[in-house]
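**Backbone geometry record:**
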Amino acid sequence: MSSVSPESSVPEKSLPAVRLRVPTEEDAYAWHRVFDDPEVMEFHGGRAAEVSVYEELTARQRKHDAEHGFCLWTMLDEDDEVIGFTGAQPWPLDDWGPVGEIEIGWRLARTHWGRGYATAAARTTLTRVRAAGVPQVVAMVHPGNARSVAVTERLGMTLSRTYPSQRLGVDALCFRLGLGG
């Protein structure tokens, strides 16, 4: 019998097929297109960044994957359409939050919400970062983002603390998961 999360009607055993790849230069444009949706960006500043920001981000992720074996990967659905990203990287800020830790995260096209893509992709991320020797990960989540909180719970992450965020205007939730050894 499959279990169903209270936040989603997607049974755990019927998660969709999702493919992750190191982001290409073209993915900067795809990410911009996918994230150019106020609902997708509700907890990330309200709107997509300029394309140049995604160009820099995808370039940085290619370098990080080459050096460490993980990054924010481009997420593809069953039809090989770009639907967002997921992956892991060092926490990118040095003025607040889990400085020095590896953060996992995901951002998904609204058309794919509620179907298990973020959970499936995040599970693949955990497998890959564990294989790269990362002992634990964190996920920083806006407290109003019930969908992302639900993904952390499905991954077995637990709330470890909060960090006041001036940029977000809230206490951001920091979930943690040990990856064993």
